[in-house]
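Usage

Read records sequentially. Each one opens with the input sequence:
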Amino acid sequence: MKLFELGKIGKLTIKNRIVMAPMGVGELAEPEGTLSQRGIDYYVARAKGGTGLITTFAARVSREIEGHLRRVFVDDSADVAWLNKLADAVHGYGAKVAVQLTAGMGRVANPAYWGKVSMVAPSALPCFWDPSITTRELAIEEIERLVRAFEFSAEILRTAGIDAVELHGHE
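and closes with the structure output:
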């Protein structure tokens, strides 16, 4: 069966074609923005179960624009330590790990859940959950800072031994 044969994505070889799609694990984030041990254990259990490629949560690349919501962030060189712990643990079962990077919640931030989040978007758009709220348009300088933040976060992931990056683009 092809499902259990080696797979390739670019230069990345995966032990099989079983790929775990990303899903939110916001409650498994520590207050400072790292993934908790329980979160790491969650991904290790999937690797132990035979998944070839695990795609994680959406990790924010910056706290600057939308603020610090209880989410996982990859925005500081100190993040290499916990990311390396995740990579090593998943690799121990022969799986590869991709971290999904995101700019933030944007127009889909639910004001009932997130409270007073500064909702931003490429242009002034209605909030998905409450169309009476209009997002603030990102300034060119903010977009440029976000691009640099993605670059910085990707370098952190590479240094930590993460195998791939997925760009989260729904917001």
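Summary fields computed downstream for this record:
- The chain has four helices and eight strands.
- The beta strands are 7-9, 12-14, 19-20, 53-60, 96-102, 120-121, 136-137, 164-167.
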